[in-house]
Design goal:
four-stranded antiparallel sheet, single chain, five-stranded antiparallel sheet, elongated, 24 strands, 342 residues, mainly beta
Length: 342
């Protein structure tokens, strides 16, 4: 069996990487069409809630506007990142004839709304023109949908000097009824201790928002034998890709490690975001190392360390005298830090 070890961090002040596991792929939220109808100016007290069609009309005194209500159910821990309103057309428009989408209030019901009591339009969400009869027409209404979903109301109006119709939820073809296609993604939760605990503005650190080798003004990258002479710590095994720093260890024991050059001080708060993968012979650690280099007499502080289980990061007792911990890192997404704060 190969002796596989790689030093992730050993520094007088701070060692660490800014990595987390990737976000899950976007998912579709559940949406249901609750109500839809249209209202008409020349029939100002009439209700059309049972119509198999929605319609808009731009001619004066014959104006028609459509109303739609959806219920968006967003999975727990996620938020809306995209919403597309899709209607199936029964007529065509030219490139200068548009149907505009707006938000509106919930002050209407499918069987009770008329031109006279219809809610006013709200935020403009976009316009679509130049579509053919028998086609799907799509508006990007993302900015009109709440991040956590719930009831969403839309209003359609048109400048076209003619009737423009779409299938409604009463259509005999369920496949052609209005749709709201919503995409969600996991929430980004502020889990940094510095943010949660209000540590204040960082005074030193590295966001790894560059590419190539670690910043030579901030980091001393090791080029030496590994711990207790096992393996090699090689600068070629550590890279920065514009969003994170990654250390890779090979089966023959070639790995990497580095120590921080910045913000040497006696007191402070330190934080690191990191993730790793590999077998239980890999071991990652972020530590504070004595400026005196008098080890083990002056000890070390191992404040983020694994001991074989990649799902558990431990805070070991302060000033505990330990051998330098070793690590192999393979990860894919950055978060801010390491950072040092007063």
């Amino acid at each position: 069996m190969f002796w596989r070890k790689c030093l992730a961090a050993a520094s007088s002040i701070l060692v660490g990487v800014a990595i987390t596991t990737p976000m899950p792929a976007n998912a579709a939220a559940t949406t249901s069409l609750i109500m839809d109808t249209y209202v008409q100016a020349d029939k100002a007290t009439s209700n059309f809630g049972t119509s198999v069609r929605l319609s808009t009309e731009g001619r004066a005194n014959i104006w028609r506007n459509s109303l739609l209500r959806f219920n968006v159910q967003v999975p727990a821990g996620e938020h809306v990142v995209s919403a597309k309103l899709r209607l199936h057309s029964e007529s065509s428009t030219s490139s200068t004839e548009f149907v505009d989408a707006f938000t509106t209030s919930s002050a209407w019901t499918e069987r009770g709304v008329t031109w006279n009591n219809a809610p006013a339009r709200g935020t403009w969400l976009g316009k679509i023109g130049g579509f053919a009869a028998g086609s799907w027409v799509e508006w990007d209404v993302t900015k009109g949908v709440a991040a956590k979903g719930g009831e969403q109301n839309f209003k359609l109006e048109s400048n076209a000097q003619k009737w423009v119709g779409f299938k409604s939820r009463e259509s005999s073809s369920s496949a052609l009824r209005p749709k709201l296609v919503v995409t969600t993604a996991p929430d980004t939760v502020a889990t940094e201790a510095a943010v949660i605990k209000g540590w204040g503005t960082p005074i030193a650190g590295d966001e790894f928002n560059y590419t190539g080798a670690p910043d030579a003004t901030k980091w001393n990258v090791y080029n030496s034998p590994g711990h207790a002479g096992n393996g090699i710590r090689s600068p070629q095994q550590v890279t920065v890709d514009g969003s994170k720093m990654v250390i890779n260890g090979t089966a023959d024991g070639t790995t990497a490690g580095m120590g921080a050059k910045f913000a040497n001080q006696k007191y402070g708060r330190w934080e690191v975001r990191a993730a790793g993968s590999g077998d239980n012979e890999y071991h990652m650690v972020s530590i504070l190392w004595p400026d005196s280099e008098n080890w083990p007499c002056d000890g070390e502080v191992d404040y983020a360390e694994t001991t074989g289980d990649w799902n558990v990061i431990k805070l070991l007792p302060p000033l505990r005298v330990l051998e330098l911990a070793d690590v192999g890192l393979q990860a894919s997404r950055r978060y801010p830090v390491p950072q040092l704060r007063r």
